[in-house]
Amino acid sequence: MTDHIQHTWNLTHPTGDRVTIDLWTDGYSVRVDGGGGESTEGGRQDVEKLLERYALRGYWVESDYPVNDPTAHDDDTDPDEPTDKPDACPE
Asked: What is the DSSP string of 40-75?
């Protein structure tokens, strides 16, 4: 089975430098893109340590999100669609 990215954190520094931290679905592999390209196998705990370390260097979390979260795709409602529409066409 191939592992995929479970969660991603995008960090930004005032100088414009960017770092991406990825937690993989195996639950313990962590990859860092930028900032020296660190890799660890400590899971979510290592992500928290990395976030703290980068915060001390002046980075902030610009965004973080689950990558392949099935619940994010279950909501098929259109935000522009009125919520008070009838369930069926009255005849």
From this structure: E--HHHHHHHHHHHHHHTT-EEEEEEESS-THHHH-
The pTM of this model reads 0.67
What Rg, from alpha-carbon coordinates, does the chain have? 19
pLDDT digits (tens, 9 = 90+) for 22-38: 999 888 888 898 876 66
Q: Which residues pair with 31 in a beta bridge?
A: 22, 39
The alpha carbon of residue 65 and the mean position of all alpha carbons in its chain are separated, in whole angstroms, by: 2
Cβ atoms within 10 Å of 4's Cβ, excluding its own = 11
Residue 12 has pLDDT above 90, yes or no: yes
